[in-house]
Amino acid sequence: MRRALIRTLLYAAALGLAAQAVLPLLWMLSTSLKPAREVFATPPAFVPAAPTLENFVRLVRDTAFLTYFWNSVAVAGLTVLLTMAVGALGAYSLTRFAFPGRELVAKLILCTYMFAPIMIVIPVYILARRLGIVNTHTALVLSYASFCLPFSLWLLRAFFLSIPIELEEAAHVDGAGRGRAVLYIVLPLALPGLIATSIFTFTLAWNDYIFTRILIASDELKTLPVGVQDLFAAAVVDWGLVMAAGMLITIPALACFMAVQRHLVAGWGTGGLKG
Amino acid sequence: MRVRAGAAVLGVLWILPALVLIGALILYPVGYAIWLSFLDKHSFFPAERWVGLGNYLKIARDVEFWDSLWKSAVYAAATTGLQLVLGVAAALVLHAPFRGRTAIRALVLFPYMIPTIVAVIVWRWLLNETYGVVDHLLLRAGLVREPIVWLGVDHMMTSLIAVSVWQFTPFVVVSVLARLQTIPLELYEAARVDGAAAWARFRHITLPQLRAVLFVVVLLRSIWMFTKFDTVWLWGEGAGAGREIRTLPIYAYMRTFTYYQAGFGAALAVIMFVMLMAATLVYFRLYWREEEVVA
């Protein structure tokens, strides 16, 4: 009897947890599929009576949404490439080469992990102006990559540490150089780590608001979060349109998350996310 | 591995690109912010004038600064506290065995993985005083007579705290859940043999085992909440951010980009940084001292 009660409570709690996380997002989906008169109807209905893609069509046709979307894809994609190239080299160095100050470097990297964007974005902006790269995607990619690097290095370092060094030594004995040993032995074994790190980096660049808000002025260079905020800042909020935009930004972020969900808890233990 | 001649050189060479990026775009800006904080400088024009501690003296007498500091403290303390309590409770539920656990564990993380702009627009819509479903449900249940104006001056901080807790608690859940899975089951079995009740098991086994992870979680979450910009800024509808939720990061941003006082803004950022460093050191000290007592 008591056992049954505990089980019931457990299931209720689990369902409650799922509901609080998902229902707000389902409400967004529902609103995005409603025609205008249903969006503003009282009482609001959870299931649209006459579902339509009208909001999505208007979003793509009448606003610069697609431009923002491609900007986001390009910036996040380039950020991942740069972070992974620089991060994998660095993490390999931290785990495989002995050099003076190595431990210090690792600790320093951990320290910068605590810095929040607001503390560096003001000087970064002034710096970018001086270099003449303000209002360019270059400035965004460089900022995101440096901002992601500390935790990417930390995460990749953990993955590289888990690969036995003997495997590489065996390759050396067989006459393979360092480059080939890394290419054919280390990188394939570190693949789950590389994928997880890429996704974290992608999510950070995809979700970020503040760097774009400050570094980008031209409408045609804006990424999604800033572009959608401007859509939302219109005098009369077109909620159907805004919710449709919300859906289209959320889908890539959640798709990435579902793809690496299994590696996530493992990565988390080594400090894989921030925000 | 044998330390070969040249390995050290190669090691430095391979980490160099990462260090250059981190140095140029994180460490240098922090240093530059410190320098800027001693200048009277316009955010866009090159003219600058050395004012020494002038900005800091102005800040000390600035009513708005003290107000924003208080708002930040309230926001960080409330959101971190709630995230901690709710996060640990949720992790305990998700650690218990039940059917569909894997799926629910993934779903619970959704709010943390979506962009902040989405979290904000969804909740601004749900909490809309005219068309929002939250007020509608509250009215229908008879809990309130008038719709609550969640985004009005009276409730803005409350609703901001609620949305932030919704968005960031999953971080605590996963961190704690990862640790829970590594607690040896024997500990619980021994306690059960001794007849310890559920609460006693939690208090004397689970909680001590979680100490280290909770230490890190509290540190990171309070730092990140104290310096949170986007959620707060967007909740206040950007530039129109009212005094009600003008936390320190928002105030620093406004000084720099609304009033164009880059030096003043940088000084605010430096103050934020110094306070966090000091708090972190004190926090570590306390933890270590307590650790000694426990040991």
Put simply, the count of helices of chain B is 13
Task: Please count the beta strands of chain A (DSSP E, at least 2 residues each).
Answer: 0
* CATH class designation of chain B: Mainly Alpha
Q: What is the highest CATH level, the class of the largest domain in chain A?
A: Mainly Alpha
Which residues of chain A form runs of ≥5 with pLDDT under 50? 269-275
Low-confidence stretches of chain B: none
CATH topology of the largest domain in chain A, anyone? MetI-like fold
Give the name of the CATH superfamily of chain B: MetI-like
Domain module tally of chain B: 1
Spatial extent as radius of gyration of chain B:
24 Å
Beta content of chain B: under 5%
How are the strands of the largest sheet of chain B arranged? 1-2
Polypeptide structure, described:
- The complex is a heterodimer of chains A (275) and B (295).
- Chain A is an all-alpha fold and 275 residues long.
- Chain A folds into two domains: 1-52; 63-274, MetI-like (MetI-like fold, Orthogonal Bundle).
- Chain A is built from 13 helices and no strands.
- The two termini of chain A are 44 Å apart.
- With 295 residues, chain B is mainly alpha-helical.
- In chain B, α12 (248-257) runs antiparallel to α13 (262-294).
- Chain B is globular.
- A two-stranded antiparallel ribbon of chain B has the order 1-2.
- Chain B has a single domain (64-294), classed as MetI-like fold.
- The model of chain B has no long low-confidence stretch (mean pLDDT 89).
- Classes of the chains: A mainly alpha (275), B mainly alpha (295).
- The interface between A and B is large, with 94 and 93 residues.
